[in-house]
Amino acid sequence: MADTASPNIWMRPERPARGPRPAYSRAQITEAAIRVADAEGLEAASMRRIAAEIGTGAMTLYRYVPSRDDLIALMVDHAIGQEPLPERPSGDWRADLALVARHTRAVGLRHRWLADLPPAGAVFGPNQLRVIEFAYGALDVGLPIDDILTYVGMVMGHAQLAVRAEIAWEREAERGGATAEQRMRRNSPYVDQLIRSGEHPMFARIVMDARQPHMSPDERFRYGLDRVLDCIGAMIPIGPRMSALTRADAPARPS
Question: Region (Disordered): which ranges (predicted)?
Answer without folding.
Answer: 1-23
